[in-house]
Amino acid sequence: MLNNINASIITIGTELLIGQIIDTNSAWIGQTLNTIGVWVKRKVSVADNYDDIWQALNEESKHADIILITGGLGPTADDITKPLLCSYFEGKMVVHSQTLQHITQLMKKNNRPLLERNLKQAEIPDVCTVIPNNLGTAPGMWFIKNEKIFISMPGVPYEMKAMMIETVLPKVSQHFTLPVILHKTLITADIAESSLAERLQTFEKHLPSNIRLAYLPSNGLIRLRLTAIEEEKNNLEKEINQHFNLLQQETQDVMIASEDISMQKIIGNLLTEKKATLSTAESCTGGYIAHLITCISGSSNYYKGSIISYANDIKQNILNVSKKAIDTVGAVSEQVVTAMAKSALHTMQTDYVIATSGIMGPNGGSAEKPVGLVWIAVGNQHKIITRSFQYKFDRLKNIELTATNALNLLRKFILDNNFHS
Questions:
Q1: Which pLDDT tens digit goes with each residue over 135-170?
Q2: In the 8-state DSSP scheme, what is residue 419?
Q3: Could you give the CA distance from residue 352 to residue 346 in angstroms, rounded to a whole number?
Q4: Average pLDDT of span 27-40
Q5: I want to staple 391 with a disulfide (CB 3.0 to 4.6 A). Which of 96, 103, 106, 372 is the partner?
Q6: By the 8 A CB rule, do 352 and 273 touch?
C-alpha cells in the first residue's frame, strides 16, 4: 500500500479573487511537486484577511501533509502573512542577520534606497527555518506543527519558483519517503473526447491499478496522459512504457505527438527537420500565431515573419488582395485568404505559409457570415489548401482555436506534401 504524501496550496491576495491577477503559481507548484512524488490534493485562494487566512491554515492542515502558501510577504500594509504566521505558530519576531545582509546588498546593487519597510522584511518568526530568497527581499519560511509542514513563499512567480527549485524540493525530498510518479503523454487531434473514450474503453479496463489514464482537452487537442505510481522505480518505467506503446497503437490515426509538447513546437520540429521556412499572413488572429511560433527558442531558424493585415486596405496595399474580391465575396472568404497566402509566400520568400481571416466576435457577424466564421489557408509555392471553421465561443477562445487549427492544418499539409521550394 502506497503512503502518498499530499499537499494543499493556499494562495493569498484579494487581487486573485477579483480576477485582477491570474493565479499561475498553483499550476506550476502542482506540476513541480508531482515530479518528486507529491500529490496536490487541494488548493484554495483567500483574500488579505486575517481570519480567512487563519481558517484556511486550519482547514488545509486537516487534509494535507504539506501546506504551501504564496503571497502576502511584501513590504506594504496589506501584506499580513508573516505576522499572522508568527502568531499561528506561537513565535516572536526576530531579525534574521543573513536576510538583513542580503536585503542591504540587494538595495545597494539596484541603486534603491533602503527603507524602514525593507528592513522589516528581515524580521522572521523565531520558530521557522528561513528559506533564502536570492531574487527578492521577502524570505520564505518553513514551519512544522503537528507533524505537518507549512511552507510560506512570496507570490512573485519568479521568486517563488527559484525558492522551490533551490530549497523547497530538496528539503521536502529529504523530509519524506516519497513514491515514484511517472507520466507519459501523447497528443491527439481531429477526434472528440467522447469518441476517444469509447475507443479506449477496453484499453482502460486492462490497465493495472497503479496506472491511470487522464483525458486533457484543450483548444481542439486532447492530451492523453498515463500516470504510474509505485514505491520504487525498479520496473515501473518498463511497465508504463509497455502500456504507452499500446496507447499509441490505439490512437495512431489521430496522434500528432508522442510527447507533451505544444503545437507550435511540433511545427518547429517539422520545419527544422525539412530545413524549411514559414511565414504568416494574419487578419483575425492579429499576430497571435506569430507570437506562439516565436515563443519557441530557435524559431528564427525557420520563421521569417508575419504581415498582420487586420484592415482591408492593408490586405489590398501590402498583400495585393484585389479590392474587387473584398467588395464581392468579403474579407472573410476562401478567395481572400488564398490571395493572402500566395502574396505572403511571394513577399517573404518562404517555403510554407499560413493565412487567416475571420470574425472573432462578439460583434461583426451577419446571417451569411456569423460570428466565429474563420477561413484558414496553408500551403507552399506548389499548392494552397483552405478550410473554414465555425466557432461559438468568446473572442479569445476563437482566436486560440484558430491558431491551433491553423498550425495543425499546416502540420498535415507538410506531412502530406513532401516537396517544398
A1: 999 999 999 999 999 999 999 999 999 999 999 999
A2: -
A3: 10
A4: 94
A5: 372
A6: no
74, 76, 79, 84 alpha-carbon torsion, rounded to 10°: 100
Q: What is the rounded CA–CA span in Å between residue 234 and residue 97?
A: 45
Rounded CA gap, 374 and 284, in Å?
8
Cα–Cα distance for residue pair 167/139, rounded to 1 Å: 12
Identity of the residue numbered 295: C
Contact predicate 102/132, CB 8 Å: yes
Q: What is the pTM of this model?
A: 0.84
Whether the bond into 362 is cis, omega within 30 of 0: yes
Q: 381 is written with which cell numbers?
A: 509555392
DSSP 301: G
Nearest Cα to Cα of residue 48 among 26, 17, 22, 21: 17
Contact 207, 213 (CB under 8 A): yes
Q: Are 9 and 68 in contact (CB under 8 A)?
A: yes
Q: Are strands 373-379 and 123-125 parallel, antiparallel or unpaired?
A: unpaired
Return the amino acid letter for 152. Answer: S
Between vectors from CA 119 to CA 157 and to CA 55, what angle results, nearest 5°? 55
Please enumerate in sequence order all residues whose Cβ is within 8 A of that of 322, keeping only pairs 6 or more positions apart, or say none.
316, 339
Interatomic CA distance for residues 95 and 213, integer angstroms = 50
Partners of 305 in the β-ladder: 279
Cα angle 59-65-68, degrees, rounded to a multiple of 5: 70
pLDDT tens-digit map of 46-79: 999 999 999 999 999 999 999 999 999 988 888 8
Residue 330 burial (10 A CB sphere; 0-12, 13-18, 19+): middle
Read off the amino acid at residue 261.
I
- Which triple of cell numbers denotes residue 387? 478550410
Helix intervals (H) in 21-129: 25-34, 50-60, 81-88, 97-109, 116-120
Query: Does the structure show a pLDDT above 60 at 2?
Result: no
Reported as a single tens digit per residue, the pLDDT across 271-317 is 999 999 999 999 999 999 999 999 999 999 999 999 999 999 999 99
Whole-number Å distance between alpha carbons of 154 and 137: 9
